Amino acid sequence: MNKKYLLDAHNLETVKKRIEAAENLLIFLDYDGTLAPFNPEQLSAYALPQIEKSLNIIKRKNKYYLNLVSGRKLSQLKNMLHLEDINYAGSHGLEIELSFEAEVVYPYQTKNIDILSQKNYDQVKRDYQKSDDVKVEDKGFGLALHFNSLEKQKEHEKKLDPLFAGSAYQLLSGREVIEIRPKGWDKGKAVDYMTQRIKENFELDSALRIYIGDDRTDEDAFEVLDDGITVYVKNDSNLNTKAEYYLENPEDTAKLLNNLAGEL
C-alpha cells in the first residue's frame, strides 16, 4: 500500500478534519527517533526544543490527552522532557505512570519463566556484561544491548535468535539496540491498556487515537489503532510499516506538532 506523506497539504487537511470532529483525542508518541534525533548516547538524545514547546501547549487543551510510549526506562524517559500532568509508558509499556494514579502501574509481570529460559537469560547477561564493545542496560525485568553499528547489532541478533527461540523471552530489535524481555507484552497492549484507563477515569465515551513512532517496536501500536491515525517517522528510506502516514524525521514531527498546537 502506498504510504501518505502527512505534511502534504491534502493529507494534513484530512487529518485536521478528523481531529476537529473528534470528541476527545489521545495522542501517543514514541521518543527516540520521533521527538529526538537518534543518538547512540541515550542521555544526549534530547527532544527538539520546538517539540517540547508544542507539547506543553497541546497538553493544556481540554479534549487532548498526551502520552509518551518508549523503550526507555520510565525514570530515564521522564528526565528527557519537562512535561507535567501527562501519561508515561516506559520499557515498552511494562512501567506505566498515569497522571491520575498515585503510583506506577506494572500491568504485566511474567511469573512463569521456566528454568531453561532463565538460565539462558542469566548466562547472556553475564557474558555481555564482560564485553567491552557492547553497552548493557539492565532494566530489571530485561536487558537492552546497545551496539555502535547496525552491522554489529545484526551480527549479534543472529547469535541470540536461536538461543531464545521458543523461550519465555523475546528479542526486540531497534536502531543499534537489541532488547531481551519477557514475552507477552508490547507497545500495542500498553496503548490499549492506557486508553482503557484514561476512558474510565475521565468517563470518555469516545476518543480518536493518534500514534507517532519510528521503530519496529511501534508496529504493534500501529496494528491496534485500526480506527485511529498512525504515523511512521521513517528516518531513512524504509517505508515497510503498517502506519497509514509517514514523516521524514523528527524535524517533520516538530512541524506537525507545531501546526497542531497552533490550530488547537
From TrEMBL:
The protein's annotated pathway: Glycan biosynthesis; trehalose biosynthesis
UniProt-listed InterPro entries: HAD-like_sf, HAD-SF_hydro_IIB, HAD_sf, OTSB-like, Trehalose_PPase
Alphabetically ordered keywords of this record: Hydrolase, Magnesium, Metal-binding
Cofactor: Mg(2+)
Entry EC no(s): 3.1.3.12
Annotated catalysed reactions: alpha,alpha-trehalose 6-phosphate + H2O = alpha,alpha-trehalose + phosphate
Gene3D superfamilies: HAD superfamily/HAD-like, Trehalose-6-phosphate phosphatase related protein, domain 2
An annotated GO BP: trehalose biosynthetic process
GO molecular function, one term: metal ion binding
Domain of life (superkingdom): Bacteria
Cited function: Removes the phosphate from trehalose 6-phosphate to produce free trehalose.
PANTHER family: TREHALOSE 6-PHOSPHATE PHOSPHATASE
Family: Belongs to the trehalose phosphatase family.
Record-given protein name: Trehalose 6-phosphate phosphatase
Taxonomic lineage of the native organism: Bacteria, Bacillati, Bacillota, Clostridia, Halanaerobiales
